[in-house]
Structure formats: structure tokens, C-alpha cells
């Protein structure tokens, strides 16, 4: 059973972003599976690096789309994105220095941050930007 299951209520009505959010959920699920199976730190660190890279890429695309359409909530999005990327960067650093373990606290942080971000912050842009040209 997946740690996080996609629900239609998560849709921001912009297919490119829904697809990215689904991929992020999948990456968090992969990290959770690695933790449950007791896979080595190398596997978990690789998954975290992938999550960091993909999240950073997605946030740049989201912010560019918002900027293109003069979305009033862009600054809030940028702040939240920056905080998340910085947190993942710290976790990546722990991986590189051997101080890392995948924990329930980490998994809960990833799950809660992403779901709250989608359901609250991203839904605000959905109401304004859905249907706008990508």
C-alpha cells in the first residue's frame, strides 16, 4: 500500500502540474518503500537527490507560469518553495556526510508539506490560473 495515494481532490486543474505532483508523490512513496524494506542509505540518498532535483525543477516551472500570468500569490509560493528546497538540501548534506537515516519524522514532513502545499497554497493559484496557456 502506498504511503500517499493521489486523489482527484489534489488536482490543480493544470495537467502539467498535476503530473508533476503525482511524480513527487511517487518519489515520496519510493523513499517510504526503501525505508520499510531497510534498504541502504545509498538508495535513500539517491532517492532524496532525485526528489531535490525534481522538486527544484518543478518549482521553477510553477513560478515561471505564475509570473507569466502575473499571479498575485507568487511571493508566497516562492517563499514556501525556497523553505522546502533548503530543508531537502540540509537532508541531502546529512546523506553526504553519513549522518542520515530515513525516519517516520522525515516521511511525515515530506507527506504533510506536499499535501498541505497542494491543497492550500496551490489550490489558490488553481482558482486563478486553470485554463491559462502553459
Write structural notes for this entry.
It is a single chain. The chain has helices at 15-36, 41-68, 74-96, 104-129. It is an all-alpha fold. It has a single domain (13-129), classed as Up-down Bundle (Four Helix Bundle (Hemerythrin (Met), subunit A)), CATH 1.20.120. Helix 1 (15-36) runs antiparallel to helix 2, helix 1 packs antiparallel against helix 4 (104-129) and helix 3 packs antiparallel against helix 4 (104-129).
Key descriptive features of the protein:
Four Helix Bundle (Hemerythrin (Met), subunit A); 134 residues; mainly alpha
| Integer-rounded radius of gyration | 15 Å
Q: List low-pLDDT spans.
A: none
The geometry reads as globular
Corresponding CATH superfamily: Hemerythrin-like
